[in-house]
Amino acid sequence: MLSTVTSQTPSLPAHDNPTVVRLFEAAADAFADKGFHGTTTRDIASRAGLSPAGVYVHFASKEDLLFQLSRVGHVAARDALAAAADEAASPTDALQEVISEFARWHAEQHQVARIVQYEFRHLSPEHQREVLTLRREIDAVVERIIAEGVASGEFDVDDTRSTALAALSLVVDVARWYHPGIKRTTPESIANSYGALALRLVGARRD
Amino acid sequence: MLSTVTSQTPSLPAHDNPTVVRLFEAAADAFADKGFHGTTTRDIASRAGLSPAGVYVHFASKEDLLFQLSRVGHVAARDALAAAADEAASPTDALQEVISEFARWHAEQHQVARIVQYEFRHLSPEHQREVLTLRREIDAVVERIIAEGVASGEFDVDDTRSTALAALSLVVDVARWYHPGIKRTTPESIANSYGALALRLVGARRD
DNA sequence: GTCTATACGACGATAGAC
DNA sequence: GTCTATCGTCGTATAGAC
């Protein structure tokens, strides 16, 4: 699961190392389940099949592990969104595709998504700043689509910025409530219904 | 701020005690800011002007403090919602009022709201169960309004349950991003725009 | 009901052998 | 690069004086 994400960002050299991949997976499991401060380095190490000291060969600190995870997660999400936006023929198509794709990502990668969205505050100030830059790129993709739809007359929106935030809120909250096996809900069904809901939020003319 | 919430639930006898109120406020500040496990009992105690030991006269444990805060917060939110729903003349009015009110609550009480929504998993299993009962009552208010609107023909909705979840997602996410002083956004403006957005989500016939 | 003092385990991180 | 052993600190919670 996580390897899908990491393989999309081969720029991180550490990803060639299977121990690092296991540490990423262990940390993603643990942070998503118990939160950053609820997770111990011993917990992560044992899930990855290492001694407590083994973590520090690959990461400078627990916070560094959270940061790398957040960064990789944001990059993967941003790239998936930008690709979806580029393929669309109109703002209406673009919004539906982008929100569908992002909703699917929040469900399929719900552990990473949860960390990305809810453990942000436990990053150091410098790391928060770096992640925030990536996050603004994601927000900008959605805002731009809505602005284009308003300009073309396809959308009817009061305030572009706050409507973009609302569409993203729908999607982000998936990471809070979704878990695999939840009743009659799959990443696929979420993707379908959330694309349509986003079109309603912007008052798209055709349904 | 918090005293507004607590005064709505005089059934909790401890609220007559100003030290307990100070502890609630200190814990709400700290938990909202740094999360449950990121907050120390020393931190809470000093914010409330007590020694570390002083907390345990009033609360059995740090988890107990989180539980009482979650419970009071849920009860306040549920009562505010139910009141808003009762005053409405139609499903359209009811949905707009309820979502407006709940969005306003998430902004005004964003610290308690954040704790209620994001620190839930750190409660003990028994306490999770108790809080979950209250949460289902909140969900049921929204679901019932949407079902009534579908029945009356005012709303056009695919799936009542998932649409209710989406409307609540919009609102819940306010607790993640809102903080006082955020650019051109007030609890009042959030309440207004979110009521309208919820009507769009359900395909309400009149805007 | 609040304090000072403290028990005692768990924490993140490091040292040094292999 | 991984281990065992451990350092120094801080965590929750309690004991007992006032």
Automatic annotation (TrEMBL), chains A, B:
Gene Ontology molecular functions: DNA-binding transcription factor activity; transcription cis-regulatory region binding
InterPro entries linked: DNA-bd_HTH_TetR-type_CS, Homeodomain-like_sf, HTH-type_TetR-like_transc_reg, HTH_TetR, KstR2_TetR_C, Tet_transcr_reg_TetR-rel_C_sf
Presence of the UniProt keyword DNA-binding in the record: yes
Residue ranges of every copy of the HTH tetR-type domain listed in the record: 17-77
Keyword Coiled coil set for record: no
Pfam family, one: TetR_N
Annotated region of DNA binding: 40-59
Keywords: DNA-binding
Protein's name in the database: TetR/AcrR family transcriptional regulator
Species the sequence originates in: Janibacter limosus
